[in-house]
Structures are given as structure tokens and as C-alpha cells.
Amino acid sequence: MKKLVLTGAAGRLGSYLRAPLAAMCDEFVSTDLRESVQDLAPNETYVKADLADLDAMVALLEGADMVIHFGAIGDEAPFETLLGPNFIGAYNIWEAAYRNGVRRVVYASSIHAVGMHRKTESIGIDAAHRPDTFYGLAKCFAEDLASLYWDKRGVESVCMRILSCAQVSNSRAVGSWLSYDDLIHLVERAITTQITGFSIVYGVSDNDRAPVDNSGARHLGYRPKDNAERYAKEIFAADGPLDPHDPANTHHGGAFSAVELGNSGVAQMKLNAEDTGKS
């Protein structure tokens, strides 16, 4: 790759991706709303930019081969709060990609696009959208945008429906965990696969209790290696019996399935301090 662009570079997941992405290209541009980030790679340039500014995104993506789009508010919030970064920002990325002839958008989608499906349903990549929050609705919007820009404008996309990329600290994560190593592997395969068209893949490790089916995305070559089962006994003992009538326990979206619209889902999850980001 000559040039890769990463949005959300100052976020928790973006921070893990910067070094691996820089190693994949000649020129690496990272961006976020912070004034700066530390430990720039020799070929990395950081640009402060607002996703809601179309002109800024067009300039940022000039000459890029692909954009890895992780920038957004990573929690449920009022619709008006999410409108700029999560909805308009997604449109601006795909439109900027089209205007610049960028080949592919690799997008951090989320399980929350289908979060109201029940966990007893093992859903595949063709599951119908059932968002659990405005945050999940933004992921549905971006996935449909990706489909539209492939069908009508030829911009490829890989939409990675991340389940929970954080330390295994609750019963849900025994099935939904995506390790950081597997995240990097997934993003690398989303970039290096020769042809993707419009593709959806679940971002989840090789967990015994993974509640989703990735077989429809095998063309991406994503083969996760980590398994959260090694944490199961300890986590289940600590959590005790779960309420089978609580949507947080019965639906794919976890706590996001149970919160009122506009209220934080992350605040209801038992996460370590360093993991309070995108889920």
C-alpha cells in the first residue's frame, strides 16, 4: 500500500492499530480530534480533523489506497450528539473516498447494528438490522451506506461488526470477546483481501461460546486464534446466575439492549477503566 488513513487514531482501538497499519504502507496518516498523539511511526503523519467536516475528509483521503474508519462516539448518546460524528461523519468518509478514488473503506461497525436479536439465535452475516440504540442505528446507516456506495459507485467496504474488544470481565464477554491480536488480524485481512465488494464480518475471537456465525465471510481469510473459554469458570463464578428476563443477558447487544435510548450503555457494563470505549 502507498497510503493508508486511520480515523479515530486517538481512541482505544485506534491506538492498537496505528503501529500495525503503519507497517503496511509507505505513507500512514492518522487522524482524530485531539491536538496530537504520541509515538508517531517514521512514516506516520497525524492530522487533527473533524469527521463532520466534508472538506477536511476529502483533503485527508487524497491519494489514499484505503481508509480504516474507527472514528466516532463509541457509546449510546442522544441522537443529536451522535448525528455529526457517527451519521454525517460516516457519509463524509464514503463520499470523500468516492471523490478521491479510494478503493476500500474498512469500517468499525458493531454488534449493536443487530443487537436486538436474541442470543439464543445464532445469527450470521446476513442477519437483518435490529439496532439496540441510536449508536446501533448509526452502524446500520453506515452499513447501508457502504452497500449503496459499492452498488452505485464501486467503493469496496468491509464492515466489521465488533462484539466486545476489551478484557474478559463479564459473562457476556466469554462469548463476545475479540482479543487485540485478533482485531489486528481482522483489520489486516480486511485490507489485504484482493476483492471484497461489500462484505460484513463479525469481529469476535475463536470463542467456544461465540453467538454469531462468520462462515459467510470466509473469503476474507479471517481465522481468529484466541478463545475466551479459559476465563469462563472464574467469570461465571463471579457473576453468579443471570436473570433470564433481563434484555442485557438475553440479547446480542448486552447492556445496550436494556438501556433507554440516549443513555450510556458502556456505563452499565462491568469494564475495566482502560476498556471504556468502543464495544
Automatic annotation (TrEMBL):
Pfam families to which the protein is assigned, alphabetical: Epimerase
The signal peptide stretch is none
Keyword NAD set for record: yes
Q: Name one GO molecular function term.
A: oxidoreductase activity
| Entry's transmembrane regions | none
Q: Which UniProt keywords apply?
A: NAD, Oxidoreductase
UniProt-listed InterPro entries:
Epimerase_deHydtase, NAD(P)-bd_dom_sf
- In this chain the NAD-dependent epimerase/dehydratase domain maps to 5-162
Q: Which family does it belong to?
A: Belongs to the NAD(P)-dependent epimerase/dehydratase family.
Which named protein is this?
A: 3-beta hydroxysteroid dehydrogenase
* Organism of derivation: Sulfitobacter alexandrii
